[in-house]
Amino acid sequence: MSAPRPLAGWYRQWRALPQRWRQLLLVLAASVLLALLAALLLHNALGRWLWPDPRYDALRQRAELALQAGKLSAADGSGARELFEAALALQPDQLEAREGLERVAQAAMARADAQIRAGHAAQAQAALQLAQTLQAPQARINALQARLSEIPTRADSIELLLQRAQSALAQGQLDDGPDAALALYQQVLLRQPRNQRALDGREDVLDALTQPAANVLAGGDLIQIAALLQRVEAADPGHPVLPALHAGLTRAQTRRNQQLQHLLHRQQWEAAVQLCQPLAVAPTLPLPELCESGLGDALLHAANVAIAASRFDQARRLLALAELAGVATDRRQQVQRSLQAASRSQTQRPQVVTPQGRAKVTRLLTQAQHAQARGHWLTPPGESAWDRLREARALAPNDPRVQHAVQAMQLAAHACHATAMRDNNLGRARECLDAWRQLAPNEPVLLSAQRRLAERWLAVGDERLRAGDVRGARTALERAQQVDPGVPGSEALAQRLQRIPSALK
Length: 505
Known about the structure:
Layout: H1 5-16, H2 19-50, H3 54-68, H4 80-90, H5 95-118, H6 121-133, H7 138-149, H8 158-170, H9 181-191, H10 196-210, H11 213-219, H12 222-235, H13 242-265, H14 269-280, H15 289-308, H16 312-324, H17 329-345, H18 355-373, H19 385-395, H20 400-422, H21 426-439, H22 446-466, H23 470-483, H24 490-498
């Protein structure tokens, strides 16, 4: 039975076409078929991406507003969580809603942390449950849960906090830590802002704190006034004594500026730095104007003048003082580069050294190395590394070997000092520091190293005194004063030693 004629006719026409045309038609037909299949498969997702549902945008915007308002979840569906979930149901392929739920989880954990710190167990538990539901990181949830479990067993009830605060007040522990009266009263007021016993107790603490205000203001000490002002202001920004303290602080700053101006005018650089340096260690204390900028400008200007006059040692001393005064490193480095350039430009006439002299220099440098290896930096006299090196430098100051030996020994002394300080071997640190001072008396960082060693000796003295070792404390104080006579804290330790009964000395 033969095929129907129409089909046979189409087939004959197809076979009559050139092979190139038949291939082209097949490719076009396959492309159309694939396009139709893709459209069928991707219709829903592509449509959602190209033409988002306006209900999705409205829900997401409402969710963002709820999150900003702190309304993380609500039974009526108006919470951020519920709104983001509704938006996600409409458009499962959109990432904004998923990211929104993650931010809700983060906000829930932050709320749980705050409620735990405030001691509100129920609110913290609710926030944690929300975070858990939204699949927040389990490690953070576990940590918060552990802290939450401690709330019922902590001995920090309102009544107990009040009792502890009253006891601390009676013992004079006002505001020196978390167990002081002020901190305990503040804990109560954080939970119960209107607790009358806590309000009255805090007022008693503030009265005790401000009691010495008149004497402090009369003394005019800038640091004491600032410290008292900071203590009172942190506890009660509206306390009536604060205006007087602010006025006293302004007067003290003006007086300190006048003193500093006088010292700078007379070029008493060391005294000027000592006047400003204690103020720099108090970050909350506003520095007098001249301490903040004028002192540094004056020191750098004086250093430049000294460089121009070829007084290089004086310039190095001024740069060291500028470092102590807190002058910015880049400003000091600029002057340092000028100093180095000026020093190099000042050439010396070559010194003629005889062969016998060169041989002696070689022998002296070898002896200096051996003495240094034995740790004999400055002793015994005449045989120490410093004495041998000094003799070699006197014979041939321009000999490259001598100059190299001086630099090498200087670096070795610096390293020796640093190692001894790290190991808390203060006696060894002093020996290395003395050698370093002999080799490089104008080294800018020498003064700061000297100050740190003296402070370490003071710490040892304080420790010995607390342990009842009066003799050891006095020895440590003497060592500190030998290293740096002006080290802060030495007078206070000396006064404590003087107050000890003679029978115990």
